[in-house]
Amino acid sequence: MPRIPHESSGEPNPLQALPLHRLRQRTSMKWRTYPEDVLPLWVAEMDVPLARSVVRAVTDALHLGDTGYPAGTAYAEALADFAGKRWGWDGLAVERTAIVPDVMLGVVEMLELVTGPGDTVVVNPPVYPPFYLFVEHMDRRVAEAPLGADGRLDLDVLEETFRRAVTDRRQAAHLLCSPHNPTGTVHTAAELSAVAALAERYGVRVVADEIHSPLVLGDAGFVPYLSVPGAERGLSLMSASKGWNLPGLKAALAIAGPEAAADLERMPEEVGHGPSHVAVIAHTAALRDGVTWLDALLAGLDANRWLLADLLAEHLPAIRYRPGDATYLAWLDCRALGLGDDPADLFLHRGRVALSSGLPFGTGGTGHARLNLATSQEVLTEAVRRMAAALR
């Protein structure tokens, strides 16, 4: 496979900074769900220290007692500046943004604005399980338009799903995962333009979850959905959460295309009371001053995805793994191992490695598992060794 190394920033690789015994002192979900003899490579938390700029900003706020309610547009301004420099996108208008508690709660609010009870929300499985859980909790109907065998959007299937979704003149939305979780697929400008054209043709509103947008590896380039022609009525959710390992500091931004500004203005004021002010400070600092840390992380993740490919080829060659171009998640096709619908169960109980079961990811998840490779190379190597030993 061709290997295109990510350019190093000169900072040390944060994935190699913390030994396992230090990580086990953490009290978050990743480290408290399973016993200590289990290597946890499941939930989306990274084994890294925080960027110094984030630690400094939060510490300064605490020393100042700046722990009130969020205000202002500093977060949106920092994201707009990051988007311009990183992706060459100057279309993120601060006046068409709103702060929301986190990306998934922002998704719920956006879907509330553009659909009603009983309407259809289209997803592209295998996909992030909360897409199903949150949408169904909203009394919306999930319709699947599965990815193609190549892991990319199948536009023919998507069009047919859109067509069915709007029968009887019902409203419908497309909840787009970009970059895609769990496959790591980065949608191209051509693909996103085609999605926008189909959405306009059938009157479907696109809500793009772009939380993994800072985590694009190698030579792949992230394309914001709202930057493509025809996406003027789209809505997007972005956050520094995944890129800088801030899931416990909740804050995200909802972004409207030029023709969706009125929709965003209808969002209830109380939604903006949900984010943490300290979290907003942390996310803003990450986007403004944490880019060199991010680049060091990306170089480490790039090395890890190829290390994982080599380890699997050596120890578990029956597992099919296509290194993704984004995220720190690896989608493992374990069907050839003959482990049944949920191989993660065997790897946990016999190998003491916790992966995410593929089953909740919808169509295409049977016989698969998701592995979080945002860890040290030593832990990644030991995890694959244990997974191979579990089959003996």
Ordered list of secondary-structure elements with their pairings:
Elements: H1 20-23, H2 29-32, E1 39-40, H3 52-64, H4 74-87, E2 97-100, H5 103-114, E3 120-123, H6 130-137, E4 141-144, H7 155-165, E5 172-177, H8 189-202, E6 205-209, E7 235-238, E8 252-256, H9 261-265, H10 277-289, H11 291-315, E9 320-321, E10 329-333, H12 343-349, E11 353-354, E12 356-357, E13 368-372, H13 377-389
Parallel strand pairs: 1-11, 3-4, 3-5, 5-6, 6-7
Antiparallel strand pairs: 2-8, 7-8, 9-10, 10-13, 12-13
Notes on the protein architecture:
This protein has helices at residues 20-23, 29-32, 52-64, 74-87, 103-114, 130-137, 155-165, 189-202, 261-265, 277-289, 291-315, 343-349, 377-389, and strands spanning 39-40, 97-100, 120-123, 141-144, 172-177, 205-209, 235-238, 252-256, 320-321, 329-333, 353-354, 356-357, 368-372. The protein has 392 residues and is an alpha/beta fold. Helix 3 (52-64) packs antiparallel against helix 10, helix 7 runs parallel beside helix 8 and helix 11 runs parallel beside helix 13. The two termini are 28 Å apart.
Compact description:
By secondary structure, the chain is of the alpha/beta class. The protein has helices at residues 20-23, 29-32, 52-64, 74-87, 103-114, 130-137, 155-165, 189-202, 261-265, 277-289, 291-315, 343-349, 377-389; strands spanning 39-40, 97-100, 120-123, 141-144, 172-177, 205-209, 235-238, 252-256, 320-321, 329-333, 353-354, 356-357, 368-372.
- The strands making up the biggest β-sheet line up spatially as 2-8-7-6-5-3-4
SSE sequence, one letter per element: HHEHHEHEHEHEHEEEHHHEEHEEEH
Please give the alpha-carbon distance between the first and last residues.
28 Å
The tally of beta strands, per DSSP, is: 13
Kindly state the mean pLDDT as a whole number?
A: 96
Low-confidence stretches: 1-6
Q: What is the beta-strand fraction?
A: 5-15%
Helix and strand composition category: alpha/beta
Please tell me what the overall shape is.
Answer: globular
Number of helices: 13
Rg estimate, integer Å: 20 Å
Largest sheet: 7 strands, mixed
Helix content estimate: 25-40%
Oligomer: single chain
